[in-house]
Amino acid sequence: MRLGSKTSPVLLTIGAACLPLLLAFGPAQAQEQVRRREPVLSVSGEGQASVAPDMAIVSLAVVRQAKTAGAATAANTAAMNEVLAALKADGIAERDIQTSNFSIYPQYRRSETKNGTIETQEIVGYEVTNSLSVKVRDLTKLGSLIDQSVKLGVNSGGEISFTNDKPDDAIRDARKAAVAEALDKAKTLTEAAGVKLGKILEISEGSTRPMPQAPMMRMAMAKDVAPAPVPVAAGENTYTVTVNVTFSLGE
């Protein structure tokens, strides 16, 4: 009896100390358990919107070879300066012209023995490549710009990707279409299951991408260029947005 009387106050004291914690965390945990048990429906929707491109990004490169690195660099620089001057004269802003690559590589002549193994490697020259990434905001000038660049010494590259400077409106339309598809899916599923569709508990955007972007083309840079400008077809850019939506369910 004495042992019990001594330990009881301690137990009561601990219980009183923990009571505020139980009151503070108990209801929250209970609500979390209820929320977890609440029936929900999660669906995804995808929306697309197409728009004509208003800008092209063109890759142009000048490649020159010579016996020495200095001679190859000098020849490359002279040709690239002419290309840059022509681009600026054609209305391309400096902010839309960017050097994307500059490289110098030795060129080797290899001698092989009869058994196929390489015996010697001799440097016989150097190749210098200077590449530009050019944004063309006036697509009506694209064909003539490529044509003129080739005449001035561009002999590599020619990759073109069409894009939009500000695709905000197209992406907004794609978002609306994605949400509409998600809502339609949810209604179809709940009607088929014979349950009521509740309120939206959560909505998130999964991804936004230009898919597919207008085709990327690669044009051969030949020495002999036709007098007419290079024909270019811009097509359309399609922007795709995915959304994920979670609904509560009723009986």
UniProtKB/TrEMBL annotation:
Keywords: Signal. PROSITE patterns: PROKAR_LIPOPROTEIN (PS51257). Residues 1-30 form the signal peptide. It comes from the Bacteria. One of its GO terms (biological process) is DNA damage response. InterPro entries: 26kDa_periplasmic_antigen, SIMPL/DUF541. This is SIMPL domain-containing protein. The lineage of its organism: Bacteria, Pseudomonadati, Pseudomonadota, Alphaproteobacteria, Hyphomicrobiales.
